[in-house]
Fold:
Amino acid sequence: PIEVDAFTECHVTPPAVAARMVDYLGPVGDFLTLEPSAGTGNLLAALFESGHSVNETVAMERHHSLCQAIRQRFANTHPINPMQECFLDYAQENACRAQFPRILMNPPFRSVRKHMAAALSLLGRGGHDCPAVLVALVPVTYQHDDIEFLEELPNDIFAACTVNTKLVRFTV
Structure:
């Protein structure tokens, strides 16, 4: 088991919710997929279980202990080396240079607007003909003009807190 403390601001996405989020991304393909707040790796696990390639997956997590846990979790099945970096810094440094056709995320709720704006700045077709898609688990209070509401989640989906959340999608 991976221990998560308040310092990480990590609210672990339940596996069943993670699987639905991956379904909302659309069909599996050769899409470079970003998970900018990898946490304990449940969204990554759902990606890999659905057939997404570890070779086309970029995972980012700023907390050392969580990065280590992700490396260990997938070492024997889908070896991945998450970038230990602040996603907001990464997005700022790579704006207009990086395009991800798929983004799957459960951003820190305290700074959800900043994280969503940063993710949207990196969302792009990346040479593909089909639209780019971002799916996120966010607080129900998060709003955006281009948001597609997918579903509201029960307020007890996280083990450590009670919060009203929803799944949303952006397509560009």
About this structure: Strands lie at 33-35, 57-59, 102-105, 133-139, 148-153, 165-171. The radius of gyration is 15 Å. Residues 15-25 form the longest helix (11 residues).
